[in-house]
Amino acid sequence: MERKKYSKRYCKYTEAKIDFIDYKDIEMLKHSLSERYKIMPRRLTGNTKKWQERVEVAIKRARHMALIPYVIDHKKVVENPFKI
């Protein structure tokens, strides 16, 4: 059985040479969130361990400040909860 060859994923933050991930910059954080606004794992985003940890902290801070929702209702899925 042949294995699929996947393209190498690169860390978006290392390539952009970003020094700091701001929790208020939601557009940058959306890259690491799923459609249900869960934090995506490293194997899917391609982030390095260092940047994944920083992204997680920034997302958790943004959730605490109510910039990103914690939970999205399964029955009433909204396309963009930021416009509510």
Describe this structure in words.
This is Small ribosomal subunit protein bS18. It comes from Helicobacter fennelliae MRY12-0050. Keywords: Ribonucleoprotein, Ribosomal protein, RNA-binding, rRNA-binding. Belongs to the bacterial ribosomal protein bS18 family. Part of the 30S ribosomal subunit. Forms a tight heterodimer with protein bS6. The structure is a single chain. This protein is mainly alpha-helical. The protein has a domain at 22-70: Irregular (30s Ribosomal Protein S18), CATH 4.10.640.10. Helix content is 35%, strand content 0%. The protein has helices spanning 12-16, 26-29, 42-45, 49-64. The longest helix is centred in the C-terminal third of the chain and has 16 residues, at 49-64. The radius of gyration is 15 Å and the shape is flat. The model has no long low-confidence stretch (mean pLDDT 85).
